[in-house]
């Protein structure tokens, strides 16, 4: 049986083994005696209700709200599978829940909403927001995703982040900075081709520009080809990236480029297109589950490529799993009202720097790799690196405090670091 068919079969078995799915709810307080029930439920439960009624911020003290994130989708852009609907999106949302928990000790309710209309979707999320300490929007297609996130950020006082936009932007930017360093190229000079002009691609490209990429060196393509000045079918976000060019296809755009950022669809880049790029090309084929070009095909086609995909089964996994658990951890711990650009840039720097530090033995063991160090095949930390929680979450919490969006101070950073380590240890013990 081919490797991929075997994996597909195993994935169905993994999900259907008892208990079905990937997450469950576990009580956190004693519940085995009459006294316990009198505290947990009626009559005792009335006391925290009344306290919160008097002082709403006490919901962080008496309930699990402060460590509970909603992963919410309407199923309109599920991975690279497209608009497969809310029911079919649930395995991904449960998966995000699993990752939030194992990597950052954050509880998740996954919520799949049968609503495509942006205004109605916004009203649904606003109505359920009191339950949560934060909202992670997931797999909602562009352009609706932009307005949905903008409105929810403006109208709610808890951190809201569309993971496909900003999680992806943070991780890919950190990996890009490191790949550029390895290839000896400057971000302000490289020619960048972005395949995709959706939620992930637009937001990632905005961040690359904030980090120094030059607008005239960027060519973005959607399903119809290059986004050029004069195209009449462009929405507001795509128009932001329209340039004067005679290139019309992805194939045209890739000629002589230094960087390819794939946030579109699997298997749309051919070996010939890869060969038309400049020396030491950087290729992040991030579409899931199938990258824009297969990892093995790319490295067989040219050995100077710095190659990354969104998948766990190849080197250089550029995937937002490296971001959302730690970004929300830092934001929740200071009761942040937002996840702003300062917090995002702090996460980029922390991730990029961590990749340059020696890799711990347990990470090497988890991936069965003896020799793992900063270089072409290791441009970004591995998801099983236990230092991510301290490095990234602390950087994010600090940036939240310094940029004025926190509502809770951290004064003893050493104690906070220890608390983060303990959270991770407790989560692994329970796994
Ligand atoms: N590795 C990672 O961490 C992440 C990867 N992704 C991946 O990025 C992809 C896009 O996700 P997202 O932005 O949320 O989805 P959206 O639906 O918002 O955007 C999809 C974009 O892909 C474009 N597209 C479709 N087919 C092609 C094609 N043949 N050539 C060029 N562009 C094409 C669409 O073009 P048009 O506008 O014309 O419809 C659209 O602009 C998915 O594959 C997803 O798995 C997303 C987030 C994180
Ligand atoms: C990784 C992810 O969020 C996606 O592919 O949509
Ligand atoms: Mg996603």
Please tell me how large the radius of gyration is: 22 Å
Strand order of the largest sheet: 7-6-5-8-9-10
The counted number of beta strands is 10
- Average pLDDT works out at 97
Estimate the helix proportion, in percent: 40-55%
Which structural class is indicated by helix and strand composition?
Answer: alpha/beta
Task: Give the end-to-end Cα distance, rounded to a whole number of Å.
Answer: 31 Å
CATH topology value of one domain: Rossmann fold
**CATH H-tier superfamily of one domain:** NAD(P)-binding Rossmann-like Domain
Helix and strand sequence:
HHHHEHEHEHEHEHEEHHEHEHEHHHHH
Pick out the low-confidence regions: none
Question: Count the helices. How many?
Answer: 18
CATH class of one domain: Alpha Beta
- The CATH architecture of one domain can be named as 3-Layer(aba) Sandwich
Q: What report would you give on this structure?
A:
There is one protein chain. The chain is α/β, with parallel strands linked by helices and 431 residues long. Among the domains are: 143 residues, Rossmann fold, CATH 3.40.50; 107 residues, 3-Layer(aba) Sandwich (Rossmann fold), CATH 3.40.50. The protein is 45% helix and 10% strand. The chain has 18 helices and ten strands. The protein has a six-stranded mixed beta sheet, sandwiched between helices. The protein has a four-stranded parallel beta sheet with strand order 2-1-3-4, with helices on both faces. Strand 9, helix 13 and strand 10 form a beta-alpha-beta unit. Helix 5 crosses helix 14, helix 8 crosses helix 9 and helix 14 crosses helix 17. The longest helix is centred in the middle third of the chain and has 21 residues. The model has no long low-confidence stretch (mean pLDDT 97). The site of NADPH dihydro-nicotinamide-adenine-dinucleotide phosphate (NDP) has 29 residues, from helix 8, helix 9 and strand 6. Belongs to the malic enzymes family. InterPro entries: Aminoacid_DH-like_N_sf (IPR046346), Malate_Decarboxylase (IPR051674), Malic_enzyme_CS (IPR015884), Malic_N_dom (IPR012301), Malic_N_dom_sf (IPR037062), Malic_NAD-bd (IPR012302), Malic_NAD-bd_bact_type (IPR045213), Malic_OxRdtase (IPR001891). This is Malate dehydrogenase.
